[in-house]
Task: structure prediction
Amino acid sequence: AQRVTQPEKLLSVFKGAPVELKCNYSYSGSPELFWYVQYSRQRLQLLLRHISRESIKGFTADLNKGETSFHLKKPFAQEEDSAMYYCALSGDTDKLIFGTGTRLQVFP
Amino acid sequence: ETGVTQSPTHLIKTRGQQVTLRCSSQSGHNTVSWYQQALGQGPQFIFQYYREEENGRGNFPPRFSGLQFPNYSSELNVNALELDDSALYLCASSLMGAGNTIYFGEGSWLTVV
Result:
């Protein structure tokens, strides 16, 4: 079955602390993995994708095919990082399968 | 700022009624997908249209139907509305092909009472 699992509904950290949002996936084949972010009152937007191997807003994510994981990391959280984060995968079409999301709260 | 626009932004319907939601895709995009996002859940894929043809469908009943027009804009129609249809409906547009970014609209909030 094709599935994306985000085990944490809520992650709360203080500003400057490291952040790791977990994502595991199940897919028979070679999917493309994404992280999408939704800031308060804004639309869903792409944060990063595994094929680009970029660092966006200080966030990175490494695809671990052995553990079927794509965890999102940032060494020092900022208050403006507070948002909903969704992990998603795509197969051979532009169809996205999303996880249930993790709300990140960064306290001052 | 992306060019995907959706209308209406909010609407309330009664159980059993029908609803049409509209999406204008970003210029140059030929693929539109619709997602349903219930409260507290991630978006769930409803279906996708590519060059005016349905190109994949998620686990939604036939009362969810759609159209894509020659200008690549799209409609989502839901018949015989049920209370569980209350959700945020998201439209996403892209240029079909590996590596292309998918852009989302702000969504249409549907409440069924």
Notes: Chain B touches chain A at residues 2, 4, 31, 33, 35, 40-45, 48, 55-56, 58, 90, 92, 94, 96, 98-107 (CB under 8 Å). The CA atoms of residues 67 and 84 of chain B lie 23 Å apart. The two ends of chain B are 33 Å apart (CA to CA).
